Structure of C-type lectin domain-containing protein:
Amino acid sequence: MKSSLKYFVLIYCLKFIEGSFRCDYQYSPKAQGWFKPVVIPASWFDARLRCSLEGAVLASPTTPEILTEMRNIMNHSYPEYEIFTGIHATVSQGDYYSVEGTPLSTIAVGWAENEPDNKNNIESCITLNGNGELADRPCEVTRPYICYRHESHVEVTECGTVDPEYYLDKRTNKCYKLHTTGIGGQFMVIH
């Protein structure tokens, strides 16, 4: 029973992979990209790493269309929370950029009341609330987040994934990936 469910899920996912990004992401034609809400809170650094390991980035409201999609996801998945965005000043305090390199000064999103305040001089990461307003917060506090991948042609590997680091072992007929970057200090092989 467990094996047949596993193969059903694999076939279901493969059906949507061709011409798409991943089966756990939803495509938005208006925002021209794929989105995945992650409700299990993580620090900003772990959220960024987890999105990156999936071939995506930590979502930032860099366009009105992406902002609208992020707000729609938030209102559906976690309306009462602030979520991490990819906007940060972890390299140089006060110099905010998205993980894609877009300066905050070019992003047309307003601040929440009394923000930014850089409370205790430790707030280097930007959150988004359900009203579509930004706030600066500590990066180490855990929050939900959204991973995003811009629309582009996606090559699917022989393992049925877009991640080129998976390889097919012909002896076992299974796919493996050695993670060289750990999350929370742990390394693992996933198949």
